[in-house]
Amino acid sequence: MVLSIYAAAMVFLPIAAASLVFLWHAFRSKWSDHPYPPVAATMIGHILNFKRVHDFYTDHHYRYKTYRLAYPTHSYVYTTDPANVEHILKTNFTNYGRENFNHEIMEDLLGDGIFTVDGEKWKQQRKLASFEFSTKMLKDFSSVVFRKSAVELSKILLEASRTKQTVEMQDLFLRSTMDSISKIGFGVEMNSLSKSNSGPEASFTRAFDTANSMVLWRYLDIAWKLKRYFNIGSEAIMKESIRTVDDFVYKIIQSRRQEISAQNSSEKPDILSRFISLSEKEPEKFSDKYLRDILLNFMIAGRDTTAVTLSWFFFLLCKNPGVEEKLLQEIHDVVMENESGSLQESISMFSQCLTHRVLDKMHYLHASLSETLRLYPAVPVDAKHVDSDDILPDGYRMKKGDLVNYVPYSMGRMEYLWGVDAKEFRPERWLENGIFQSQSPFKFTAFQAGPRICLGKEFAYMQMKIVAAVLIRFFKYEAVTGKEVTYRPSLTLHMNEDGLNVHVNCRSDW
């Protein structure tokens, strides 16, 4: 009986509160000298549209460049206006932070990592990460890892083509990028691609993805703290997922510490080893917990984003065979292949040809990946906390305590930004005389902009180009009919549980 009353209260009280808030916000917006953005919907509409949340945002952006979703205690502001994005990410950067509300929501999963903190902790991690990403050692090491990963992927696809079995590409990419990021980040061979879906690595991956989705749900669920206190519902799932994640990551950290100590050397190319070296000099700053936070932030940046982008890229290629043919032609034009024996030997030798110089010549591939990120950005929405009252360039007032979001998913679909064909997959929009042309990072926001611009951008392109070039050169893909491909709401734009199922065939020249 008590639980029934509690459940009813959880349903009806927010509805009543949201209705009152909507009226109050609408009235206040109308009579302010500097108006608040128009109220497009309330908490209820937000929750009811959770499964299609990014299209829900986009529907409203077709009417408003900037608007609000009204909640009982604050508002969520959403904008697609590049001038506003530049103001938030660069001009008035210090007023739009990660901590406070954002940190509290994401802390259980990402702790005090670079995506959740501001101030000195952010500066410290940014400085260290910036140095690591600029080293030739990491760049060369990463390219070797990415080429190996592409070859391992090709082995699975080759077997699938021989046995006529369908392949779920998102799962393969997630496992492949898990292998890559664990080697580059942790110095650990996960071998996810060669293992069944039942080991500790698979359990970690599932738990990490579940926690990722639960974090996004917290932004909509005003009762999440209460649920966490009583350990019920989504928060019980969250707690169990975090336990699995922590058990796995702490074992890796402890193992790496022991290896480094035994070898009496930290001269290893992986990022964890280099951070552990720093922790020996400043142990008070680099506890196992802090290293755990750094690694999970690095993982969500380097594993999820690349995997989901490759998944959407191949989804779009299945729908646009003309683009695939142009990509294949570019690969043939740019890569000087050597004759060899078996198909697998040819794939291995081909991957070695994908040097930095060769990859830089693949302008159409770079444009196609950028076009994928325009329509299916790995991070579809990014929230910042408003630390003090402010006025955006479009004249709308921001109130201290609100959350302001720029929305890459919606921005990629706005005709006023990309033209009347904004919804079309057209890599040519990025090319001028066959040469790739960058867009303003405040218009193409897939990698953020300003002081928080993604440090791993070039690494992400390098990995995606290597994998895409190998898989396009040797295989053809056809999407399985009858399976709808949609996204699953989470911090990164994963496809739903069915993923991307395809038929794979070797190309006719093999």
UniProtKB/TrEMBL annotation:
Gene Ontology molecular function, alphabetical: heme binding; iron ion binding; monooxygenase activity; oxidoreductase activity, acting on paired donors, with incorporation or reduction of molecular oxygen
A Gene Ontology BP annotation from the UniProt entry: paclitaxel biosynthetic process
Keywords for the protein's UniProt record, in alphabetical order: Heme, Iron, Membrane, Metal-binding, Oxidoreductase, Taxol biosynthesis, Transmembrane, Transmembrane helix
Pathway: Alkaloid biosynthesis; taxol biosynthesis
Domain of life where this protein originates: Eukaryota
Cofactor (UniProt): heme
InterPro entries membership: Cyt_P450, Cyt_P450_E_grp-I, Cyt_P450_sf
Binding site for heme: C454
Spans traversing the lipid bilayer: 6-27
UniProt similarity note: Belongs to the cytochrome P450 family.
Name of the protein this chain belongs to: Cytochrome P450
Organism: Taxus chinensis (Chinese yew)
